Every structure is written in C-alpha cells, then in structure tokens.
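User: My instructor asked us to take a sequence, write out its structure as tokens, and then describe one feature of it. I'm not sure where to start. Here is the sequence I was given:
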Amino acid sequence: MSECIAVCPGSFDPITLGHLAIVRRAANLFDEVIVAVAEEAEKQHTCSIDERVEMARGACAGMEKVTAEAFSGLLADYCRRRGVTVIVKGLRGHCDI
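Assistant: Let's start with the prediction itself. The structure tokens for your sequence are:
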C-alpha cells in the first residue's frame, strides 16, 4: 500500500489554533502531513515567507508526521511534485469573517 501524503495549504499569516486543530486531525488520518505556506506575491503579508514557515514549524513541533515548507505557484503543481494525494482545508463560519 502506498503512503498517503496530505497537504494543508494556506498563507498562515499567522498560523492559528484553528489551523493547528486541522493539522492535528489530519496527522491522525494520514501517513504524512505537509503544512504548505503559500508565498502569494500579490498579497500583502504581515510576516515574510521565511517567518511564516518558521512560525508554522514551531507551532507544529512535536507533531509526528508533520512538516512545514514554503511553496509558490499552483497548488495542483506543488501536489504533483511532492506526491500529495489529499488536500485538507478548513471551513470558516460566517461569524469568523
């Protein structure tokens, strides 16, 4: 059976407890979880891409099977390159906007 790799993509500016809850749940379901921090050059971010990746790594420290890294371009292309088989996203409620 092949390994099931999941990706949790986002800007993570900053990474929140809600993000971490989703990552933690994904880590319980899949063999590997990548927190993929999007560069998104067209968006104005509070923190640089390197700072956001380091925050994600620090927040996920101690979670087995979870790594964090930057990506740019189309998510579909990134998933193909990394062998990702599942995309995990959270949903926001109307009161969270």
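For the description part of your assignment, you could build on this observation: The two ends are 41 Å apart (CA to CA). Try explaining in your own words what that tells you about the chain.
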